[in-house]
Amino acid sequence: MNKIWLVTQRELLTRIRKRSFIIMSLLGPVLIAGFFAMMAYFAGATEDTHVRKIAVYDSTGIFIKKIPDTQYLKFEYLSGVKLPDLKKILKTSNYYGILYISPAIAHNMSAVQLYSFDQPAMNIKQYISSVIEKEIRNQKLLAYHLENIDNILKSVETNVTVETVKLSESGDEKKTSTELSMGVAYISSFLIYMFILLFGVQVMRGVIEEKSNRIVEVIISSVKPFQLMMGKVLGVALTALIQFSIWIVLSIILISAVKAAFLPDVSAVSAAHPPQDLMATAGQVHQQAQQASPELTGIFSMLDSIDFYVMIGAFLFYFIGGFLLYSSMFAAVGAAVDNEADTQQFVMPITLPLIVGIMVMVSAFQNPSGPIAFWFSIIPLTSPIVMMARIPFGVPYGQIILSMGLLVATFIGSIWMAGKIYRTGILLYGKKVNYKEMIKWLRYKN
Predict the structure, then answer these.
(1) pTM of the model
(2) How far out from the chain centre does Cα 219 lie?
(3) What CATH superfamily classification does 52-156 receive?
C-alpha cells in the first residue's frame, strides 16, 4: 500500500505543478460558464438580420396585402406577369425568392411554393406558413358571418404558465423549475462525461509514454505492475478531484457575487429595523428583492428547491467511481499497445457506453422515472451520467444506493481484470495485440 501511495503522490505532484493545471483550475468555471452561455446564445440567435425581398404571386387574390412585412422580410405583390417569366428573371432581379400561392390552396395545404436559388431558412418558412394559415382560418370564420375576428381571437386567447411545486412528506412546499432541473442535470452529467474521457485518456497516454520510453522497466523493479497501475489511476483521480474542488469553490464565490451584485443587501435592511419587527423586515427584504430583480429572485428561490448537498455528494461519488472504472480500462489498453495509434480498436468499445449514456440522458430529461432512464442509471457503465441526469428531478434513495453499490462492485471487477492485462502487457513490446490475446492474459494465474 505504501508503494501505491508513492506512485500516487508522484503522479499527483507531477500534474498539479504544471502551469496548465493552475491556469485551468482558476479559469475553469469562467470558461465552462462561457461555453454554456455561448451555446445558449447560438441556440437563441436564430433571427436573420439580412433584409430579403420576396415577390408574391397570388393566383387566388385572397392573400394580397395580407402578409405583413417584418424587419428583415419585405413582400412585394406582383400582377400581370406569368410565373415562368418570374423564374427566368429571378437570378438577375433583387428578389430573394418568389412565393407562389396556387388556387388549390382551398383544399390542398401544400399548394404554396417558395422558389429561390438558396435554401430558405426555417424561420422564413415558418413565418410565411403561419401568416397564410391565419388568413385561411379568418376566411373560414367569415363564412360563419363573424365580425371583428381579430378582436374576438385576441379576447379568447389565453396564455397559461404552469408553476411546479414540490411537496415533501412533512407537507412543506418548494417552488421548482423543470427547466432549471434540466440545466443542472445536463451540466453535471456532461461534466462527468467530459472529465472521465479527458482524464481517462491521460492515464492511457501516461502508460504508453512510460512504456515507449522504457521507463516502466526501471519502475517495476521497485513496485509491482498492479501497484504501478493503481498508483497512476489514483494519482490522476486526485488531480481531477482537486481541480473539481477548486472549481466548486470558485463557482460558489461567483454565484455569491451575482447575488450580492443584483439582489439587495439583506443585512443592511435587517440592521435598519429592530428585532421585534422581524416579520415586517422579512417582508420588506422580499419586496425590495422583487423590485430589484424579480427574475433573479425567482431563479435563486428555485435553486433552493434542488438539494445541492445530495447533488454534490452524488456528483463526487459518480465522478470518482466512474473515473476509477473507466481509467482502469484505459490503463489496461495503454499497457497492451506500443503507441497511441494502436489504441483505436480498444478505445471505441470503452467510450461507446459513455456516448450511449449521453444519448439516454436526453431521454431522461423527458421521462426521468421511465424504464429506460431507470435501467441505464443502474447499469454501472452508464450510471455516472444517467443517474446524475435524474437526481435533480428527485430519485428514491434506494435506487441511488443500488446504483452506487453496483458501480463499486463493477469497479472492483474491472480493476482486477485490468490488473491482469496490465501485468502482462506492460513489458510486451513489438507485438500487435488483439482481444483474443487479452482474454488469454486474463486466464494466466498469478
Answers:
(1) 0.65
(2) 41
(3) Periplasmic binding protein-like II (3.40.190.10)
